[in-house]
Write a structure and sequence with these properties.
14 strands; 40% helix; eight-stranded mixed sheet; alpha/beta; globular
Length: 288
């Protein structure tokens, strides 16, 4: 690897300064998932980025999923998944596994990783302090999905308390209701609502694609910026389709609820979070 001169190092820091000042003391919500969560090198890069941003005064909130780990545990326990209109039906046994894997295993591993990178992190789940409350979600045609939840309220106090104590809150997206039932919440949806309720400066969704593409098979057709008012038109054109629809709906909702901007970035690119935050060009597609 080519050695960087001290002069170049200084220049890098000088160039980053306006962006560090812009985000100083502001809240940045990162939804962490996809390849960046399973590939060890990418995982290390994400943890380094988060700790660095935290140390320069950015209030980072990390919201995570854990689909592959949940699938793996269900398989080990011989619990069969079945789907309703492409969405996993969550029965009593499955929601117990979701809670165990997300809040117990994945969440604590991320806290541990951030600690190894010299970051101060605290693990939370939506049940802690009544942070995320939910009700039963159904499909568009009214079919029951079991313990899949629709967010009804976010209590930001546990998150703000963690930030005030200099910690990085790491949030597993399980929720509860007034009767003590546990719900599995989509991590993109939860991150969007959390970012809105916190009045975040930016919401970053990490994915396994470059961003929104005009031609889904051609990365050079990346659309760098979308105004939320253009989204219905892009859906009609088929540019926003399939699995991108719910992700982009989350971005639109976050912006409409007051988040200054939301960005879908490629988590397969090492240090994509820093590239997004500390440069003018950014990376991926931003919604404003």
């Amino acid at each position: 690897m080519e050695k960087i001169s001290n002069n170049d190092k200084a220049q890098v820091l000088i160039n980053a300064l306006p962006y560090i000042q812009k985000y100083n003391n502001k809240i940045l919500v990162i939804k962490y998932g996809g390849n960046a969560m399973t590939n060890k090198e990418l995982k290390d890069a994400v943890m380094t980025d988060i700790v660095l941003l935290s140390l320069v005064g950015v209030k980072v909130v990390l919201v995570h999923g854990g689909g592959p780990e949940i699938n793996e545990m269900l398989k080990k326990l011989n619990i069969e998944s079945h789907f309703v209109n492409g969405l996993r039906y969550t029965d009593d046994a499955t929601v117990d596994v979701v809670k165990m894997v997300l809040a117990g295993k994945v969440n604590k591993e991320l806290v541990q990783l951030l600690s190894q990178h010299k970051g101060n992190a605290v693990g939370l789940c939506g049940i802690d302090g009544g942070m995320i409350t939910a009700e039963r979600e159904t499909t568009e045609d009214g079919q029951d999905l079991g313990w899949v939840g629709r967010v009804t309220n976010i209590n930001t106090k546990p998150i703000l308390d963690a930030l005030a104590n200099g910690n990085i809150p790491v949030i597993a997206t399980v929720a509860t209701d007034e009767y003590g039932n546990t719900y599995n919440i989509n991590a993109d949806t939860a991150a969007a609502r959390i970012a809105a309720e916190l009045g975040a400066e930016n919401l970053i969704l990490m994915t396994d694609i470059a961003g929104l593409l005009r031609d889904k098979d051609d990365p050079s057709t990346l659309i760098p910026e979308v105004n939320v008012s253009e989204v219905p038109f892009l859906k009609r054109r088929g540019i926003i389709s399939g699995g991108m629809i719910p992700k982009i709906d989350c971005c639109v909702e976050a912006v409409r609820r007051g988040v200054r901007k939301t960005v879908i970035i490629d988590g397969r690119v090492p240090h994509s979070i820093l590239i997004e935050i500390l440069s003018n060009e950014g990376i991926g597609t931003q919604f404003v």
